[in-house]
Every structure is written in structure tokens, then in C-alpha cells.
Design a protein that fits this description.
Radius of gyration: 28 Å
Oligomer: single chain
Shape: flat
Distance between the termini: 34 Å
Helix content: 10-25%
Structural class: alpha+beta
Amino acid sequence: MYIFNCITRYLSVFFVAGMISFSALAQVEVKWEKELSSDILWQEVTALGNLIVSSGNQLSGVDTETGAIIWSKPELAGLNRIAYNELPRSPFFTVDLGKSILVLDQFSGDLVFDSQKAGIGTIEDYFLLYNSDAILVSGKSQGSEPIMVSVRMSDGSVTWSMNEEFGRIISVTELENKELLIVTLFNNYKLNAENGDIIWNEENSAEAEQMKNMGALGDLMKTMAENMVEDIDIELRYYRPQGGDVFYLGSQQESQSGFTSSSGGSTVSYQNVYIAYNISDGNRVWDEPLEVKGKLGQVAFLDNGILVLPDDGNRTKINLFDYQTREGKWGKKGRGIPIKGGIYDYLDAGDGILLVSQTSSNNFLNYLDPNAGLITFEKPVKVDGYVVGIVPLSSGILYITTESMNILDPKSGILKWSKSIQTTPQLTAQFDGKIYAFDTKSRTIKVVDEQTEKVSELSDFQLKFMGGESPRNLEVLKDGIFIHSDQNVAKFGFDGTVKFQEYYPAPKEPGWKRALLYAEAIRGAYIGATSYYVSGVMAAVEDDVRQEDALAGEVVNEIGNAYGELGDQASGYAVQAFKMANARLKATQSGRDFMFIMSKQPNGIELLKVSKASGKVDGRISLGKDREPIYAVDDITGQVYYRSDENKMTSYQAN
């Protein structure tokens, strides 16, 4: 009640004297100002922190420290925002000119690919090959013939071109000795990466072999099949155990039985099929494919065999298969171990594997001893939501789902708390041997001691946010627990006292928050790349962004993968991008003592710098009253870029 009265009193003061209080606030420090020679159309901060600006007479890269133009492309003057897209997992962006698609380096502005110059009329697939300094592009030539070209990243030149009819490409992998492994819908290829010569080409299934033997009719059938699945996600997956000389393809096959009175229609059943191939010559390792009932699920390559975890509903069986003979090792006559529900994920818990499965209405946990080939629980453990992460504790496993959190005893299969904490990954945080979680049901903060595994309440204060908002993020700072939504902030001391709770009303105009939301999501994605909640946090921020911008959501989704892949390729073309990603990753780990909030204030829309120490506004950036302000935010460096006039850009630095 005390907090509510404080809020009410604050709002009364705000409405009476809002003009005075906010006019007294200091503006966020101006870092630099830059006047361009033409009107600014739009600006974007890339995931790697580069600033791209489109104006009436150029597309340019701007130095974020000084405002100086680093590179300029007059030929891309007046570029529409819809034609620009950041290329996920890369230091590049694309420009769609209709007649041609360009790929440019966001650091230098260098053109690394021009589809028209490369002779490509329609692009179907592209793959970034950092070790080979190449972009591999497949599609149709300007004369509608199949074409694949390899373009050198460093200078945009075409290294080689070929007219092989590859069809739908599933994956491209860089091998040792400057070779490429290409998996397509019907064939596998091994190529020389330097000149495009085909080292071997083998059909990847018995059906593909049959079509090859049918000559022209087989070619027609393959073309028809390619056309039918052109816009469909194919269930064909590529696996290669690290350092191995064998690769695997897993596919899903569907069949229907006749009409049954019980189901009222035909019954659909699934089979997942695995084939092993030698990388050296493309030949198959096994005489027959490995076939497992159920939908294509998870696969793990263990020391003693291939662990296949399918999704066959309530009939699911898991099994370990011999690498050489493909024979099953577990269960009666090697037929596998039954498990409740279809498996959709698994988590390595050190001495065992936590299996996550689901039926049509529930999610379950089971614990697998992979050495003994046994499920250690007497019965599966039912949980709320999808499991997205685990934390090994002294004698149990803390798991977190999209809805709840609890501790599982891996020996007994019993949950240690009678009631799970109703929470989400982004509303939990680890700090000093404890895990803090906001319980969405009780609206209180719970504390989990990692040693004793006991749960307690930080305080009995029920947190309620104004404006109909719910908390969406929790962060542990050195002096307490900071929790916020888009427009609300609150802080608790470690003793449970409420240090502050503040509310800043949101703007009603559409489009105001897109850039801020995207910037927050980029920061969240970097944080998630090192978090044990990675999938849950990423899913949360990605979904938020996708509601505003689908392509931006794709960029956010790829950041964790990009960091790992650029790290692997640090000696190649992406070394500068890796260094930038590494620096930004470290910057997010150091935390921040403020957050940005977009708010409707008496003088118009303002981007507020709100202190996490006090909940008060430390500074503001006025964005005027435009319905669609042209601004961009880097939530990692704390910089804001705003078109303060038609051709003038101002950078603010929030420290």
C-alpha cells in the first residue's frame, strides 16, 4: 500500500508540475553532430555495432565515435529501407535492386557480390565460406540455366562458375584440404573449393538411384519433385561428428494407412531414416539405411554409438545403434527403450542425459544413463512448459521452462519443491550462489540457495506494474534486484525492502518503439549467448522483435550462432567481425547502470535514460512529435543516433 500511495502521489505531482520537473532534467550528452549534404532517409545499427545511413545522395557507413563518413556509395543514393537487409551470421548486408542483388561489407562498404555481374538471374541459395574466402551462390542464369558461382569475399571476383543442376541444396560444409561437401535433395557432392571441380557425385538414396536409372523420365520426376518442395521446409538433416570421416543424413518419411472406424479417417505414421556416407568417396557405410519409428527428432553421437531420440508420440522408443553394424543395443532384442511422449530435446547433465518429451497435452522429464542404457526414473516427471535450460546443483538439477522452475532429483525422479515457481527464463538470474526468480503467480521474488536447494521469498511484497504491464526482465545488481517491463521499473534490496517503483507512460503512436525494441533484443541476444538459459532468452527476445520486424527477428535469432562461428573462423575473412562481436559480448557481461525507456511526456516523445540505482530519469533525448521518428539505438554502447533535422544527425552518449 505504501508503494501504491507513493506512486499515486508522484503521478499527481507529475501532472501538476510535469513541465517544470522534466524541463529541469539534463539532456543526454551529445557525442557528435554530422550534417550530410542531402536528406537522411533512414539509419540502422547492425548487430556488430556499425552504423549504416541512407540519404538522398548516398548510402554510407558512419564512424560511431566521430560521425565521420567511413565509406560512401553514391550509386545507392535514395535507397529504400525495404531494399536493405543485414545478412545473419556475417559481417555483410544485402541490397535488393530488383534487377540485381548486391552483398556489401558493412565495415568497408566493399562490394563482395553482384548477382548480375556473376551471371545469376535468380538466386536460390547462398552460403558463406569463410575459410575459402568465398560466397557460394546457386540459382538460375539470366538465360534460366542452372548455375553455381563461387565469389571471392575479399574483392568480389568470380573464382569459378559451373552449370551443374544441383537442385535443392540442404547444406554446404567446408572440409579439410580446401574441399566442399554439398548435400542436395537427391545427391551428395564433393568439390574442389578453389576451382569447382567435382571430386565425386553420388545419389544419396535408393529412390534417387532409381530415378537416375530411368533416364529422361527420372530427370523429369526429379524436376517435378524439386518444384513441389520449392517453398517447403524439407525434413532432411546433415550430421557430421566432430573430426569424423563419416557424415550422416537423417530424413523423415510419412505413410498413411487405410480408413479406420476408431480414428474416423486414415492414420498417418512416420519413419526417420539415417544413412551414413564416407567423406573420402561418398560411398555408403551401411548396406541398408537405419530406420527408426517416429518423426525425425534428436540425434547424439556418443563414444559407443548413435543415440536416436525420435518423436513417435506415446509409442516412442529410444535406442543406441552401433556405428558399424547399425544394430540396436538397448531394450529387448535391441528394439529400444519405451518412453512417455515424443522427445523434442535433451540436455547433457554430466553423468546422465535429461530427456524432454511431450504428449498432446503435457511435457515430461526422464533421466537416461547412457552407459547402462537405462531410464532411471520409475515414472516420468510432468512439468509445465517447454524445458529450455538446466543448472546442475549439489544434489539435483534445477530446470527452467517457458513457464516454471523446479529442482529435480536425478536419482529418484522426484521434484524437490511441492510447488514449482511460476516464472520464465528472462525473469530469473544467478548471483553469488543464489538464483532469483520472479514468481508470476504470487507476484513475489523467490530465492533459491544453490547449496541447500531451498527456496524462500525475498519479501511478501506483491509487485504490480501500471499500464497493464507484466515484468519481462530481472537483473541482479550489486545492491539489489532490478526488475522492469517496457514502461515500469522497480528494485528490491537483498533484504527484501522495496527501494523504488516508477512508471513512465508509453507513446501511443505506432512505430516509436521499433528501433528501441530491436536494440534491446540485440543486447539480450549477446547476453543469451553465454547464458544457461540461452534458448529461452533468445526465444523471448526474438519473438518480441518478430512482432515488429520479421527480418530483424532473424538477425537476433542468429547472433549466438554467429558468435561461435565467427570465433571458429577468426583466421579468415571474418576476423574483424569476430573481434567486434567479442568486444560487444564482453561489454554486455559488465552490466549497465541505466536503461532506455521511450515515454510520452508533456513536451512530446522522449527517450529517457532511467537509472537502475534510483529509478529516476538521469537524462532525456527529445524526439519531437513526429509519428515516425528516424532514430537508431545501440543498447550495448549506449549510443543513440537521431535525425535532428532533415539532413542532420546527432549522436547521444548515455554513460
